[in-house]
């Protein structure tokens, strides 16, 4: 084998047989229904960011509600605070969906990333048998060797005036020597009974369709839809002492006691003040 042949073999989509490519035709058959939310599924081999691509497509009028864009590899995936997200090809699920929640007040759209977190955790529990907790506002946590680790994240971005693109990244088969940081985790390392990405993606998207439909039917009301209660039940941040690092180099320390009707984390400080936090970085300081 020549050096060129070896290089080609190393980059082949079949070079890692433990990580087969997604079956886009099977995904379309399973997800696209005449009366369903999902209207299209596209799978690309590699892209910088599925969120950026879908926002651009929506802005150009080339994508409507229910569009799903999946990448086998993301080279410039982004999380909150513009953090970068990268992983080996086909080692995870990297996808974005376009939602246009007409009939829901824009003031309630901030619940979309929390709703997605509930949907992802529910779908993964059903298909992978992994207990996934939620760190406010948008991190997915799994337990690896008794330690809580981040295995995924969610990022929501506006796409014009009428739509939101929600992106999800989940580490599925990442091995210990492939972790970007020691504090990261994956479904495989958490003991998932299933790491086949096709059923995992179908399960997550079906769960998202169900939760989104319930939330829209309730006019975006997080209490009436059951979203607020379900999020709180699965939120690993509640009941813990946390530090909230806020815009303007300000921080507060206290116990996370609730998620309010606007999706904000309510922190009770030692001064007896309950302060709602709508944006910022949350650090867990001790176990619940």
UniProtKB/TrEMBL annotation:
InterPro entries for the chain: aa-tRNA-synth_II/BPL/LPL, Biotin_CoA_COase_ligase, BPL_C, BPL_LPL_catalytic
Top-level lineage group: Bacteria
Keywords assigned: Biotin, Ligase
CDD domains in UniProt: BPL
Pfam family, one: BPL_C
EC top class, as a word: ligase
Molecular function (Gene Ontology), one example: biotin--[biotin carboxyl-carrier protein] ligase activity
E.C. number(s) listed in UniProt: 6.3.4.15
The protein's name: biotin--[biotin carboxyl-carrier protein] ligase
